[in-house]
């Protein structure tokens, strides 16, 4: 899968290409000071970002050449806090892919395997073949 760009690259987390496969995407990294909220724990937006990236990545692994996707809904449950220096690992797994919708679940753990957060969401899929996408700006493809 292509490397992260733009906003995703700025987050400081990376796709684990070795653990990513059809319908599954793993994203991880180490918590830095920039990821913390005013209480000294990881900001909830960081949890949402890493889960959204892993879950969307899982959808991208099953797209056809002329398809693109984007998040339409994301529900995140925050179970435990993480602190600076913690290793985060988000796994996104495709539950079901239809013609225009994909349903995905995600789990965020720390370096000890403790579950920090869980999520589920829906991704819309556009296709140049059925006229719902112009065919410009296609998503990166798995390597």
Averaged pLDDT: 90
Helical fraction equals: 10-25%
The proportion of residues in beta strands is 35-45%
What is the C-alpha radius of gyration, as a whole number of Å? 15 Å
Q: Report the span from N to C terminus.
A: 5 Å
Derived from helix and strand composition plus strand pairing, the structural class reads: alpha+beta
List the helices and strands and how they pair.
Elements: H1 6-10, E1 14-15, E2 24-30, H2 44-60, E3 67-78, E4 87-97, E5 101-109, E6 115-127
Antiparallel strand pairs: 1-2, 2-4, 3-6, 4-5, 5-6
Give a structural overview.
With 143 residues, this protein is an alpha+beta fold. The protein has a single domain (6-127), classed as Hotdog Thioesterase (Thiol Ester Dehydrase, Chain A, Roll), CATH 3.10.129.10. The chain is built from 2 helices and 6 strands, in the order αββαββββ. A 6-stranded antiparallel beta sheet has the order 1-2-4-5-6-3, with helices on one face. The protein is elongated and about 50 Å long. 31% of the residues are buried.
